[in-house]
Amino acid sequence: MASKKNLVANRESLAHKVRYAASRPDRIAPYLKRAARDRWLAFKHPDHVNYYRAVMASDTRRNPEAAVGSQTHERWLALGQMQFDYLVGHGLTPGARMLDIGCGNLRAGWRFIDYLEAGHYYGIDISPDILIAAKRTLATQGLQAKVPHLTITKDLTLDFLPEAYFDVVHAHSVFSHSPIGIIDECLAHVGRILAPGGHFDFTFDRTTGAEHQVLREDFYYRTETLIDLAARHGLHARFMDDWEKLGHGQSKIRVSAG
Description:
Number of helices: 10
Number of domains: 1
Radius of gyration: 18 Å
Strand content: 15-25%
CATH architecture: 3-Layer(aba) Sandwich
Distance between the termini: 33 Å
Shape: globular
CATH topology: Rossmann fold
CATH class: Alpha Beta
Largest sheet: 9 strands, mixed
Helix content: 40-55%
CATH superfamily: Vaccinia Virus protein VP39
Structural class: alpha/beta
Order of helices and strands: HHHHHEHEHEEHEEEHEHE
């Protein structure tokens, strides 16, 4: 579904930007427009969560599906199906309790809601705008009777959630937009809410070169950085090789209680 990962490029470097612009001149104007918008939003919102909440508000106004990274409705459906199939293939059962961090407009979430028993899906997001879009998805799919929990949050301390409760915690395309401090915050607290035998799957933008970010929107990490970070919080983390075979642009790590 995605092109082969470029694991060595430093997208923050001037050399990469020049090469990219030369090979894709049609993307120069959109990039400059987005960069100008992001600089303005970063000026208004120095804190990353408030900044990215503003980014999501801007993107959602134009197109909620594009705001979660899907340029077409067909792509939105396909990426949601990929996430769903992967977790079901790894043993997700209807009786499981699931927390979906960064649930967005329920690209994958509506499939999980439909599959899980009523009340077993919890979705959280920092963006009120995308959660309004999530409610529209829920209504469009006719899933009101499944009574999912959709909650706005400002951090990943997960302090409002019960201890040892969730069989699966899922964060797709969340850490790819997060500085290391936010990832550390999540890993510091996710172990408390995992049920015995539960696991936390998250995707990330992987690099084997220098870790970097682009426009404070996209963050690239080495696998060992995130595995070591999980270990500091008493968690066991492993790279999911079978996810790589699906051709998604991001990589996946699974975390469980140590």
